[in-house]
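Researcher: I'm preparing a figure for a lab meeting and need a structural model of a single chain. I don't have an experimental structure, so a prediction will have to do for now. The sequence is pasted below. Please return the structure as tokens so I can convert it later.
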Amino acid sequence: MQTKDPELVRPRFVHAMHEIEARWARLTAGPAVLSGREAHELAATAHDRWITEHRDNLSQSPWRTDLFARVWQKRRLGLWRRPDVVYQVRSGEDEMEAWCLKQTDNLTAKKGLQTNDDGCGILAKAFSPAIQRASLKLGRGHIKLAAPRVWLRIL
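Model: Understood. Here is the structure written out token by token.
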């Protein structure tokens, strides 16, 4: 409880117990399908966290705002109807999608959520617009920037 003062411990204990009970209820309920609205509400905190993490050094951001329109779209097919590997390596959408999926795993573990594959996909797709909005805010100068973002790719 991070304090020895009984007046501070009581409300913190009650709050912690409510969180534990809610988490237990979610775990015993089994996998749930998230609606789009619920997924966007869960992913909304990523927007603020992204701004605080990348406010001072935007060049460390792995998100590419120019590729947002192509994230979560079917990939171009190449030789023998397989995904075009050269296109995927050069573009970067896969890294952005993988980042969103990783954030989904982190959030579900932290909140104790159990979702099926569809729910994980919906939640992962909800992360991308939140991060896009935050990156555009940082890029437009709504928030203090440290340096402009430059991307160089060597093939």
